[in-house]
Design a protein that fits this description.
The chain is of the alpha/beta class and about 400 residues long. Helix content is about 45%, strand content about 15%. It contains 16 helices and 13 strands. Strands 10-9-8-11-12-13 form a six-stranded parallel beta sheet, sandwiched between helices. Strands 4-5-6-7 form a four-stranded parallel beta sheet, with helices on both faces. GO terms for molecular function: glycosyltransferase activity. This is Glycosyl transferase family 1. Pfam families: Glyco_transf_4, Glycos_transf_1. InterPro entries: Glyco_trans_1 (IPR001296), Glyco_trans_4-like_N (IPR028098), Glycosyltransferase_grp1 (IPR050194).
């Protein structure tokens, strides 16, 4: 359902896209040949893209060649599997191992495994039962078909790779998965790309004023990200600090803002309405989608990066921000907490408490000395998390099966 190349092109993406692409490139250095199959969403894009030596992205035609709602991928799985076998036969390809990312890929992987008789490794990236645990409305909750699919894959896959220790625990306790069946390969960060840029230079590049004190949020525009709490927190901060009215601002990177507002997603419309109701229209900017290569400018321009998510499986945004020397405030219900800790960044106790969130932001935005103290520590911590390490963890799992 998602193309690994999308993050490079500024299309709507999540951590899954980056995780799959970066680990594939590193696995190739360990002498793996990687073919990543995804559904074609643009007929103008090449059907086979050579990413790097021994790494390809292959776009298979299965249904309309355009983005579609996630659930509409389900009836296309059989068509996708047939397209896979047609391509493999035409190219005279054979494979030793399957690795499904997200449950759609896992369901396709089960069908491919049955015919090829090779192992299937599974990574979910997010878990339906966890999303339903924290979801506040029907729109935020996953449907039964996804839960059933994940339960089936947990039973039938040869091995599961979780992206965080917290998701490993959820797989064990909520999905009744034997502990020995689960491995963990936490994400990494490309510190060559994500490194600190002088703040004034970064602000100029993204069109911010020098005096701006930017609170930054990055991610898909969806209810689980908790961005509405961030708008409330900003309102509180502006009331407390009226002298910062023309300086303090919130920039949200993500979502499709290129369309007229009438065509915006339901959550983006909700945030726009909330922005207007709170009287902070001029202080909140919806940036829209940005390619990976542009993100370091946004991180470097910011004073603090906030992730008030109700659920995150790992949270690449935190690592990227830390690599750029920016403190991170994250909800402690996410997989991010093990990355940033209470000393290196900040942890809030509840995403439903805008007052507490405002306190944490104010402490970092107004206390320049504290920001300087933690900056180098954040960079060093991010440097411990590399995609090479992620790939090596996968390599150890793969070698048990091929």
């Amino acid at each position: 359902h998602a193309c690994p190349l999308a993050s490079q092109e500024g299309k709507e993406t999540g951590g899954l896209n980056v995780y799959v692409l970066e680990t594939a490139k590193e696995l190739a250095k360990l002498e793996y040949r990687i073919d990543m199959f995804t559904r074609s969403q643009d007929a103008r894009q090449p059907y086979v893209v050579n990413v790097s030596p021994n790494v390809r992205v292959i776009h298979l035609v299965a249904g309309p060649e355009k983005p579609i709602p996630k659930r509409e991928n389900l009836p296309l799985i059989d068509i996708f599997v047939k397209a896979f076998f047609d391509f493999a036969k035409k190219e005279n390809l054979s494979y030793d191992l399957l690795h499904g990312h997200y449950y759609f890929s896992g369901l396709a992987g089960l069908k491919v495994r049955k015919k090829l008789e090779i192992p299937l490794i599974m990574t979910f990236h997010t878990l339906a039962l966890m999303k339903n645990l924290v979801g506040r409305t029907t729109d935020e909750k996953e449907e039964e078909y996804r839960i059933n699919a994940e339960l089936e894959l947990v039973q039938k896959a040869d091995c599961l790779i979780a992206t965080s220790d917290s998701d490993r625990a959820y797989l064990k306790y909520l999905y009744n998965t034997p502990e020995e069946k689960i491995s963990v390969a936490t994400p990494g960060v490309d510190t060559k790309l994500f490194s600190e840029i002088p703040q004034l230079e970064a602000k100029k590049e993204i069109g911010a004023r020098a005096e701006h004190k930017i609170i930054l949020a990055v991610g898909r525009i969806e209810p689980l990200k908790g961005f509405d709490s961030l708008l409330f927190a900003l309102k509180i901060l502006l009331v407390r600090n009226p002298q910062l009215k023309n300086q303090l601002c919130l920039w949200i990177v993500g979502g499709d803002t290129s369309e007229p507002p009438a065509l915006w997603s339901k959550e983006l419309k909700h945030l726009e309405t909330l922005r207007r109701q709170l009287g902070i229209t001029t202080s909140v900017k919806f940036v829209g989608r940005e390619p990976q290569k542009r993100l370091p400018y946004y991180y470097s321009a910011a004073g603090v990066v906030v992730m008030p998510s109700h659920y995150e499986s790992f949270g690449l945004v935190a690592l990227e921000a830390m690599a750029c020397g920016r403190p991170v405030i994250a909800s402690n219900v996410t997989g991010v907490s093990s990355l940033i800790g209470t000393k290196r960044g900040k942890l809030i106790t509840s995403v439903n408490n805008p007052l507490l969130l405002a306190d944490q932001i104010e402490d970092l935005i107004t206390n320049r000395g504290k920001f300087t103290q933690v900056k180098e520590k954040l960079k060093k911590e991010a440097e411990k998390h590399t995609w090479t390490k992620t790939a090596r963890k996968m390599d150890r799992v793969y070698k048990n099966f091929c």
